[in-house]
Amino acid sequence: MKLNTKNLSQLPERVQRPLYDRKQVKQGIVHIGVGGFHRAHQAIYTEMLLNRGKASEWGICGVGLRSEDRAMQEALASQDYLYTLYELGDSDNSQIQVVGVLGDFLLAEDGSEALIRKLADPETRIVSLTITEGGYCTDDSSGQFNADLPQIRHDLANPQQPKTVFGFLTEALARRRAAGVKPFTVMSCDNLPHNGQVARNALLSFAKLRDVGLHDWIASNVSFPNAMVDRITPMTSDAHRSQLLEETGIEDAWPVVAEPFLQWVVEDNFCNGRPSWEEVGVQFTDDVTPYEEMKIRLLNGSHMAMAYLGALLGHRYAHEAMQDAQLLEFVRAYMDRDVTPLLAEVPGIDLENYKDTLIERFSNTAICDQISRLCSDGSSKLPKFVLPSLLGQIEAGVDMRRTTLILAAWCHYLRGLDERGATYPILDPRAASLQETAGLKERLVESFLGLEDVFGHKIPASATCVATFRLQLGRLQELGVRATLELTMAEEV
Ligand code: NAD
Description:
Radius of gyration: 23 Å
CATH topology of the largest domain: Rossmann fold
Strand content: 5-15%
Bound molecules: nicotinamide-adenine-dinucleotide
CATH architecture of the largest domain: 3-Layer(aba) Sandwich
Number of domains: 2
Shape: globular
CATH class of the largest domain: Alpha Beta
Mean pLDDT: 97
CATH superfamily of the largest domain: NAD(P)-binding Rossmann-like Domain
Structural class: alpha/beta
Number of strands: 12
Number of helices: 23
Strand order of the largest sheet: 6-3-2-7-8
């Protein structure tokens, strides 16, 4: 049965469905970057409120800024913007839910003016973002916005026909300011340390280049809450689609698959109102820092620890990597000995228990989270997920064999060839230049760690760090992953 409004009443009983009148819901939120994660996380919290008869002014209008978003837009439009959340866990209490909170989906390609108007509309009170870690055009080591990128230069020269998120938000805020309309909150839900601050710095840097008065107005009036977001959301595969069809009879062009776990800790800093998300489990706090450091360094950092070594060994899914005793031991040691000692205390969280839960979540066999997804965009992810721990270790003068092994594994992985002889594509906007560097026969270590936009200055400047990286890379090249892991774990300090 094709998923659409007409067929909602025929869904099998075990499938939850919207319990409210979708026609009565206003779109107070515009979300840019409607991938899997937004549909499994923020949209679900809002759906929970709608199902309780609340938040009727906080429906969501999706937005895609890239041509790749057309496929998702068309899939969702063909089913009245309904989609299925297909929870997959190892216990049998997973839920299947048809979600109605998304009311529309605009593509920038179909007309920038319509999108600017939507953003400038007083009904829009929050603009949320999942535009990936690399989407903020910010240098990780300096924190500087990169205004020289061609797309940024384009948007500064063509403020009425922007292409980037910064161009659209700035033009919409300019119109709101001119019309005396309150601004919207800009809420990043990307996995970045201090995601709100990064979004603020990027938007203000862009706005300053356009109009200093507008910059000052945004700085004083727009809020950018920091948030820690968590729910493992793999890419939807055809196998997931068929499994859903088989289990429920629902023909959904693009369901979203996620683990049962979800968590969101947000700073309560919204300049134009917000849904009462606290009623459905969102934790509001004054300072998100300890939560985001814990989550990004332990969860996302451990994903990096398993991903590149796992890919080199030929594993395809996260649970396969966790069933590999050597990798499991390595990942847990990385969590316990490298990340945990550098974390601040996290209010209300027992870190041992948190790490046990992470291992359990990574081991979820039902969800089939792709190692290739975890490996993607390493040049944006490693500086946020792993390098903060490495920099802490350099400063503390402690052993960094495991942490440098993650970087060495990435370098070795960039050859595009696993230890079973299979090839794979490198999914990273900088793939070509990274592969060129990783393929150098001479001065590889210096050239690789010298990639300043990835590693910054401090890492190549640490002689111990460079030497340990050299040792680990040499072992991977000469002895392979298993022997390297064995040696590394045997000489644990
Ligand atoms: P996805 O690939 O399904 O979707 C990514 C979306 O971002 C697409 O709509 C794409 O068009 C858009 N996008 C990418 N670069 C952009 C840019 N420069 N400007 C504007 N839009 C851009 O990925 P996803 O699983 O939805 O994850 C998106 C982000 O959500 C991640 O990068 C991460 O920061 C965060 N997140 C994901 C998960 C997860 O498990 N998938 C968990 C926590 C947080």
